[in-house]
Design a protein that fits this description.
This protein is α+β, with helices and mostly antiparallel strands. It is built from 1 helix and 3 strands. Helix content is 20%, strand content 19%.
Length: 70
């Protein structure tokens, strides 16, 4: 969680946008990004993301929990 907060803070500082962390239950946001982790140690994948849209998983970002920098 802290790594995502730091990364988004960097984007805020250079792009003039603001990210606000809200509980999952709050669904009335205009844009929603969700971050999750998965054990991908048996693959060559270190993460993936879904494009914006209307699907349930739109905007989701998944990262490999077994990667040392996570």
């Amino acid at each position: 969680r802290q790594a995502v907060r730091l990364a988004l803070a960097e984007w805020q500082s250079v792009c003039g946008i603001q990210f606000v962390e809200v509980p999952n239950a709050q669904a009335d946001t205009s844009i929603e990004l969700k971050f999750g982790v998965a054990d991908l140690s048996k693959t060559t994948v270190q993460g993936w993301a879904y494009l914006p849209g209307t699907a349930v998983n739109a905007g989701d970002v998944w990262l490999d929990r077994s990667h040392p920098s996570m």
